[in-house]
Inverse folding.
């Protein structure tokens, strides 16, 4: 049995005991960063569950080959999110710099596969993203029905600033 590949890292901070009902933030880091780039945000908003992307070739995924395509990263991220969230729960997608591009593409991929409608059929105009999600789902053994049952995020938040000011932390919803 192969070990499940961890795409997202759960950021834990002192006093940060959270439940899914507090909300989930899927965070996508900048090109030179890693999941730990979002620790200041997790400290500033400890009631949220911070799930930070860890790209292959970085951090705990250092031994993996660097990604060869944005679509491949996006497909893996969408499938991991669907596996974690299922059909319920509120979440937002947050990206900084290059991560903003990835976050945007994740939302586009969710639309391309008809997320939220639960029918398991790719229905969007963006065939490359839909195909990447279907390929990642097949590789992970996740049914497309599971992916399509994932609701759309409550918000897409992007940042292009060179530093994360703590005052810019998201508020709980």
């Amino acid at each position: 049995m192969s070990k499940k590949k961890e795409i997202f890292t759960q950021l834990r901070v002192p006093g940060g005991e959270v439940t899914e009902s507090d909300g989930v933030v899927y965070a996508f880091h900048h090109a030179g960063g890693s999941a730990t780039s979002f620790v200041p945000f997790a400290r500033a908003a400890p009631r949220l569950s911070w799930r930070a992307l860890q790209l292959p070739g970085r951090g705990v995924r250092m031994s993996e080959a660097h990604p060869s395509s944005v679509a491949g990263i996006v497909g893996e991220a969408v499938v991991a999110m669907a596996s974690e969230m299922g059909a319920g729960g509120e979440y937002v997608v947050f990206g900084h710099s290059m991560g903003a591009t990835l976050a945007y593409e994740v939302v586009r991929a969710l639309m391309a596969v008809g997320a939220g409608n639960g029918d398991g059929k790719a229905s969007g105009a963006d065939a490359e993203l839909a195909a990447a999600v279907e390929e990642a789902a097949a590789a992970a053994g996740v049914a497309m029905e599971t992916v399509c049952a994932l609701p759309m995020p409550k918000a897409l938040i992007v940042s292009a600033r060179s530093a994360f000011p703590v005052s810019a932390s998201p508020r709980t919803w």
User: Anything to note?
Assistant: The longest helix spans residues 70-85. The two ends are 39 Å apart (CA to CA).
